[in-house]
Write a structure and sequence with these properties.
binds copper (II) ion, mainly beta, ten-stranded mixed beta sheet, 157 residues, Immunoglobulin-like
């Protein structure tokens, strides 16, 4: 019996294809905006007990000279992040999904209780008040900006 048997080589085209898609993925996830173009302040994450979703609040200012479109967010600390808006209709407050939010040059938008908010679901790890949580804001044109949110108490505004 031969000690070494001839095993088929892994197909080169397949390897090349796999490498290419990895490479493309890297390009797609490293597109970050110049920090000067967008300002995020008061980024906070309001924790609720148990598995209840957390709410993300912040103020976003478009300091660039052209419009930007916020399209969503993700976070390594949560399985699912959605962009919502609370609306009051006939005395009843309900939430509706927000697909995207356009900010003209110089415009500022506030994510705050009673209005726009990020809804962060499926906590990937336990979080306590005072924790720093990374959140990536997504913008049209495959741009993203990493923001550190501070975890705050359920009663915080
Ligand atoms: Cu919500």
């Amino acid at each position: 019996m031969p000690l070494m048997s001839l095993t088929p080589h892994p197909s080169l085209p397949r390897l090349a294809k796999r490498w290419c898609s990895t490479f493309l993925l890297l390009i797609a996830t490293t597109g970050t905006m110049a920090a000067a173009e967008l300002e995020v302040s008061e980024a906070r994450l309001r924790l609720l007990p148990g598995d209840l979703p957390a709410a993300g609040y912040f103020t976003l200012t478009n300091t660039s000279e052209k419009g930007v479109t916020l399209t969503g967010a993700d976070s390594p600390a949560f399985g699912n992040v959605m962009m919502h808006r609370s609306v009051n209709q006939d005395g009843v407050t309900r939430m509706e999904p927000v697909a995207q939010l356009e900010l003209a040059a110089g415009e500022q938008v506030e994510f705050a209780p009673g209005g726009y908010h990020l809804m962060l679901m499926k906590r990937a790890r336990p979080l306590v008040v005072g924790d720093d949580v990374e959140v990536n804001l997504h913008f049209a044109g495959n741009q993203r900006q990493r923001v550190t949110f501070r975890a705050v108490a359920p009663t915080a505004q």
